[in-house]
Amino acid sequence: GHVTGVQTCALPIFLLAALAGILHGARPSFLTDAMPNAFSLAPGYSAGWLGARGEARPRRDAFALLERRVDRLYRSGIPVGRGIAIDGDARTAAADVRAALRARALPDRARLVLTSPPYLRVVRYGLANWLRLWLIGEDAARVDGLLSAPASARASEALLTTVLDDLRPILAGDAIVALVLGSVESDRGRRLPGPIELADGAARAAADAGYLVAGVASDAVDPSRKL
């Protein structure tokens, strides 16, 4: 969302965001189990999956589940600070971040950056979130048309170098930048001869951009639980 939208109608946007978080999932706390994963499965696939189960759809109270979600989000109380949402390009985000912070008389240097760059062409992010986008009146195809993902490990490394170069001027001296990456084993559904370790390229990109690389932490996930 845009900064102006967050300022002028924060409550409706908050409720929509809370609702988007429980649209579908494998537990009873979600509105439907037709799509058991975090990504929105294609309508035809979902219909086939439901038909193969041969079970009636569960009846769930949307308002009760939304109330439960809001209670969970507020379990530590209402946040003391206001967030800032910026609709922009990650390659040139630093200027927008600095301007937004200065507009609120806040320090204009970041101490923590946490981001997850695109995993090459593994995911079409608009299509994978088409149901959430429908909820907020967006079109998945339009969103995917606005996004681009690197097609190779070298392109991914170059993208990260650009992003990290742009960020440096707004980072505090003790800032930490964490990049969440993965091993890519397929390209548009085709199995690759061997996995592409994006973290290795990220470490090189960070070093090239003048960062001190603290290390690469491996977080192994059971293949059966991957999305």
Overall geometry: globular
Order of helices and strands: HHHHHEHHHHEEEH
Radius of gyration: 20 Å
Summed over residues and divided by their number, the pLDDT gives a mean of 84
Q: Report helical residue fraction.
A: 40-55%
Number of helices: 10
Taken as a percent bin, the fraction of beta residues is 5-15%
Q: What strand line-up does the widest sheet have?
A: 1-2
Structural class: alpha+beta
Q: pLDDT below 50 for ≥5 consecutive residues: which ranges?
A: 1-8
- Termini separation comes to 25 Å
Fold and architecture overview:
By secondary structure, the protein is of the alpha+beta class. The strands form two sheets. Strands 1-2 form a two-stranded parallel sheet. Helix 9 packs parallel to helix 10. The chain starts with a helix and ends in a 19-residue tail after the last helix. The N terminus is likely disordered.
Keywords:
single chain; 227 residues; two-stranded parallel sheet; 10 helices; 4 strands; 41% helix; globular; disordered N terminus
SSE blueprint and pairings:
Elements: H1 3-8, H2 10-20, H3 43-53, H4 62-73, H5 93-103, E1 110-115, H6 125-128, H7 130-135, H8 140-146, H9 153-167, E2 171-179, E3 183-187, E4 190-197, H10 198-208
Parallel strand pairs: 1-2
Antiparallel strand pairs: 3-4
Quick rundown:
The chain is an alpha+beta fold and 227 residues long. The chain contains 10 helices and 4 strands; from the N terminus they run αααααβααααβββα.
